[in-house]
Amino acid sequence: MALMITDDCINCDVCEPECPNEAISPGEEIYEIDPGKCTECVGHYDEPQCQQVCPVDCIPLDPEHNETNEQLMEKYHKLTGL
């Protein structure tokens, strides 16, 4: 499943540099996660790095983008070319 950022986001900017896939970017009001690039850090780390650094815990799983670990790993391979 891709992750998403909720309206609780305080725009602190700590999540964006942590994303190895560059899936996080500033939106009109809060940061946003591109589900096409989000692998929940599968292939890079054991846990999603954005969730680890978020001070307000506003990065849950996105129920609209349900993916298995295998699908996330496939996306990782496509994004990295590895």
TrEMBL record:
Gene3D superfamilies: 3.30.70.20
Record GO cellular component, one term: cytoplasm
Annotated GO MF terms: 4 iron, 4 sulfur cluster binding; metal ion binding
Domain of life: Bacteria
Entry-linked PROSITE patterns: 4FE4S_FER_1 (PS00198), 4FE4S_FER_2 (PS51379)
UniProt keyword Iron-sulfur, yes or no: yes
Stretches assigned to the 4Fe-4S ferredoxin-type domain: 1-29, 31-64
The keyword Electron transport appears for this protein: yes
Matches recorded under InterPro entries: 4Fe4S_Fe-S-bd, 4Fe4S_Fe_S_CS, PSI_iron-sulfur_center, YfhL-like
Keyword terms, alphabetized: 4Fe-4S, Electron transport, Iron, Iron-sulfur, Metal-binding, Repeat, Transport
Database matches in PANTHER family: PHOTOSYSTEM I IRON-SULFUR CENTER, PHOTOSYSTEM I IRON-SULFUR CENTER-RELATED
NCBIfam families tied to this protein: di_4Fe-4S_YfhL (NF033683)
Record protein name field: Ferredoxin
Organism listed in the record: Oleiphilus messinensis
